[in-house]
Design brief:
With about 250 residues, the chain is of the alpha+beta class. The chain folds into two domains: about 1-75, no CATH class; about 75-249, Glutaredoxin (3-Layer(aba) Sandwich), CATH 3.40.30. The protein contains twelve helices and five strands. The protein has helices at about 1-25, 30-45, 45-75, 75-80, 105-115, 120, 140-150, 155-165, 175-185, 190-195, 200-215, 235-249; strands at about 85-90, 95-100, 125-130, 220-225, 225-230. The chain has a five-stranded mixed β-sheet with strand order 1-3-2-4-5, with helices on both faces. Strand 4 (about 220-225) and strand 5 form a beta hairpin. Helix 1 (about 1-25) packs across helix 3 and helix 8 (about 155-165) packs across helix 9. The longest helix has 28 residues, at about 45-75. The termini are far apart.
Length: about 250
């Protein structure tokens, strides 16, 4: 407890000392005397601690947000312009939304339909880019590779939807992934062969590295420009998109 309050006491001291000096400029005080004055002040005004904590939390949040913006700006090409990614919406849309997701993420599943409808909802002004970020289980990675392999056959969106609609409780067995591929119109044998390719496995590995570099450690995460919204925060994503579309127009 003492260690936690020490920096707060120091902050209070900085705010309080000038007032003491104004009261008696001719009488310098010792460190012990100043610390006693600060201690007494905090005991009489405990709300100072809460105010200092709020200020510190705000400052930490602002610094974290700025660090994330800087990291996104430094990795813009990999985020928004990778040839390995699949997308929906016009290629020349003025605004691009990128989603990092895991096929076994419940929040990603609940956001799927809404995310897929965004290009139409914004009258073609928004393109949505999908980045597989399988972090929840080994089965997540198999599903990600299956989606990328389906993309080799021009069936990424169909496979994406089918995998998102799979029941997590079943464990995403190979048979279930194959059945999802059949429903999506995918050649299963070809998909299985492509899933083992080094190239597609590198896409998944690169996405994981990129996510770490820009501070993403959970799914879903949505990015537009230099901004990011973590979690299935649809109002936050809509606000981010609305602002970007307005600026682009």
């Amino acid at each position: 407890m003492t260690l936690r309050l020490a920096p707060l006491a120091a902050l209070s001291l900085l705010a309080f000392t000038p007032a003491c000096a104004q009261q008696d400029d001719a009488a310098p005080q010792s460190r012990d005397e100043i610390e006693e004055i600060v201690r007494d002040y905090i005991l009489e005004h405990p709300e100072v601690i809460e105010q200092a904590l709020i200020k510190l939390q705000q400052r930490a949040s602002e610094q974290e947000a700025q660090s994330a913006r800087d990291a996104i700006a430094s990795n813009k090409e990999a985020i928004y312009e990778s040839d390995a990614d699949y997308s929906i919406g016009p290629d020349d849309a003025p605004v691009t939304l990128v989603e990092f997701f895991d096929y076994r993420c419940g929040f990603c599943k609940r956001s799927m339909e809404w995310t897929m409808e965004l290009p139409d909802a914004y009258d073609g002004q928004v393109r949505v880019v999908f980045k597989e970020f399988p972090i929840l289980s080994p089965e997540s990675e198999k599903a990600a590779l299956a989606a990328l392999a389906a993309g080799e056959q021009g069936r990424y969106s169909e496979m994406h939807r089918e995998l998102m609609e799979l029941d997590n409780s079943s464990g995403f067995t190979p048979d279930e992934i194959d059945a999802a591929a059949e429903r999506a119109g995918v050649d299963v044998d070809r998909m299985r062969a492509d899933m083992g390719s080094v190239r597609l496995q590198k896409v998944v590995a690169d996405n994981k590295t990129l996510a770490r570099q820009i501070g993403i450690n959970g799914t879903p995460a949505f990015l537009v420009g230099d901004e990011m919204v973590s979690g299935a925060n649809q109002p936050g994503v809509i606000k981010m998109l609305d602002e970007a579309v307005e600026q682009a127009g």
